[in-house]
Amino acid sequence: MNVYLAVIIGSLLAAWLLGVLSDLLNARAMRPEPPAELADSFDAETYAKSQAYTRESMIFSSVADTFNTVVTITVVLAGGFNLLDNIVRGAGFGPLATGLLYIGALGLISGTLSLPFEAYHTFVLEKRFGFNTTTPATFVLDRVKGMGLTALIGTVLVAAILLFLREAGPYAWLLCWGFSVVVSLALTYVAPTWILPLFNKFTPLEPGELRDKLERYAAREGFELSGIFVMDGSKRSTKGNAFFTGFGRRRRIALFDTLIRDMTPDEITAVLAHEVGHARLGHIRKRLVTGILKAGAIFWLMSLFLDSAPLFAAFGMEHHSIYAGLVFFVLLYTPLSLVLSVAANHVSRKHEFQADAFAARTTGRAGDMISALKKLSASNLSNLTPHPLTVWLEYGHPPVLDRVRALSADPGRTTAQ
């Protein structure tokens, strides 16, 4: 068997098997009673509901992963990539337009296949447990807007990459890397003003106790904000959240309206302090630098495999092309992607512990951070006892029980064991 084909099929199956094993162990890790530290937030009914939600979410995820794995392997083995290549070549366009059409067609096919799963998750699973507030019109409009943005930004990015790889010789990967970084930073800069408002309404937080507390905290920490906004998260879900957008002087905090509804001003201040902690402790900068370096490594690796005849033979291709090479490298990259994802999740969990401790120390009220975490986990029906393998594979945040225990044991610590 072609070595590249063996690696691709083997990595797809290995990732699927890891997911199945994770779900089985996760189900076995469930306990009949909530942990003592969280019993005050999870009554019997809420805890039973959270376990049911976890089970059904795992079943849904397993079905979706199985479908995606089977379809991908089938398409690879049946020569589907070559068939599509012959179809788009038949349109008679030049190399650049043909490449954009090929990659765009793959994206459209992938999005179409995933649409039934997205609809089921939103309108059946999430609705069954009281989370979904999305209307069919909002669901459709979100997808249309998302496709439009992807087409616009993706066309510019992919077109530039294809041109660089075709015209710039052996160091084209450097130009691809630099251009992708510029685009990424530009999108981060304009997202608060031009992109996010396409999907949600952002309203300045009204004057009052909450705004006063948040502004006093930010001023005390010397943390500049361009604004504090309320996002209409309830337009799609009852789940609460908060996040930073932008950077530098365009940095702003967005609070879901559901978060404001369910939490006290002191708890929301603790949530803000947690996000400030990520900035003050250098987590955002480290993630940015890591992401830039990772992108460079990916483009360099891609340049090594882009013209590989065995790689094209693995997909039964009649013609070699830069655009097909890009797609095939993404599949070949699967095992390394899994390893890097696990490593990134490990670092992210460590950062979350540190940001929790920062919030407890700078507010002087660890109890507010603990109660905020408890409320979020209860309202989101979080799994309180995930198996370590599931955490290792999937969790960018530590389980809430670990976070509560860390804050209770040492409210002001800045590192996690």
From TrEMBL:
<dbReference type="GO" id="GO:0071586">
    <property type="term" value="P:CAAX-box protein processing"/>
</dbReference>
<feature type="binding site">
    <location>
        <position position="278"/>
    </location>
    <ligand>
        <name>Zn(2+)</name>
    </ligand>
</feature>
<feature type="binding site">
    <location>
        <position position="274"/>
    </location>
    <ligand>
        <name>Zn(2+)</name>
    </ligand>
</feature>
<feature type="transmembrane region" description="Helical">
    <location>
        <begin position="6"/>
        <end position="25"/>
    </location>
</feature>
<comment type="similarity">
    <text>Belongs to the peptidase M48 family.</text>
</comment>
<feature type="active site">
    <location>
        <position position="275"/>
    </location>
</feature>
<dbReference type="InterPro" id="IPR032456">
    <property type="entry name" value="Peptidase_M48_N"/>
</dbReference>
<feature type="transmembrane region" description="Helical">
    <location>
        <begin position="101"/>
        <end position="125"/>
    </location>
</feature>
<keyword id="KW-1133">Transmembrane helix</keyword>
<dbReference type="Pfam" id="PF16491">
    <property type="entry name" value="Peptidase_M48_N"/>
</dbReference>
<dbReference type="GO" id="GO:0004222">
    <property type="term" value="F:metalloendopeptidase activity"/>
</dbReference>
<feature type="binding site">
    <location>
        <position position="352"/>
    </location>
    <ligand>
        <name>Zn(2+)</name>
    </ligand>
</feature>
<keyword id="KW-0862">Zinc</keyword>
<dbReference type="GO" id="GO:0046872">
    <property type="term" value="F:metal ion binding"/>
</dbReference>
<feature type="domain" description="CAAX prenyl protease 1 N-terminal">
    <location>
        <begin position="28"/>
        <end position="201"/>
    </location>
</feature>
<feature type="transmembrane region" description="Helical">
    <location>
        <begin position="146"/>
        <end position="165"/>
    </location>
</feature>
<keyword id="KW-0256">Endoplasmic reticulum</keyword>
<dbReference type="InterPro" id="IPR027057">
    <property type="entry name" value="CAXX_Prtase_1"/>
</dbReference>
<keyword id="KW-0378">Hydrolase</keyword>
<feature type="transmembrane region" description="Helical">
    <location>
        <begin position="171"/>
        <end position="191"/>
    </location>
</feature>
<feature type="transmembrane region" description="Helical">
    <location>
        <begin position="59"/>
        <end position="81"/>
    </location>
</feature>
<dbReference type="InterPro" id="IPR001915">
    <property type="entry name" value="Peptidase_M48"/>
</dbReference>
<keyword id="KW-0479">Metal-binding</keyword>
<feature type="domain" description="Peptidase M48">
    <location>
        <begin position="205"/>
        <end position="408"/>
    </location>
</feature>
<feature type="transmembrane region" description="Helical">
    <location>
        <begin position="322"/>
        <end position="344"/>
    </location>
</feature>
<protein>
    <submittedName>
        <fullName>Peptidase M48</fullName>
    </submittedName>
</protein>
<keyword id="KW-0482">Metalloprotease</keyword>
<feature type="transmembrane region" description="Helical">
    <location>
        <begin position="295"/>
        <end position="316"/>
    </location>
</feature>
<feature type="active site" description="Proton donor">
    <location>
        <position position="356"/>
    </location>
</feature>
<keyword id="KW-0472">Membrane</keyword>
<keyword id="KW-0645">Protease</keyword>
<keyword id="KW-0812">Transmembrane</keyword>
<dbReference type="Pfam" id="PF01435">
    <property type="entry name" value="Peptidase_M48"/>
</dbReference>
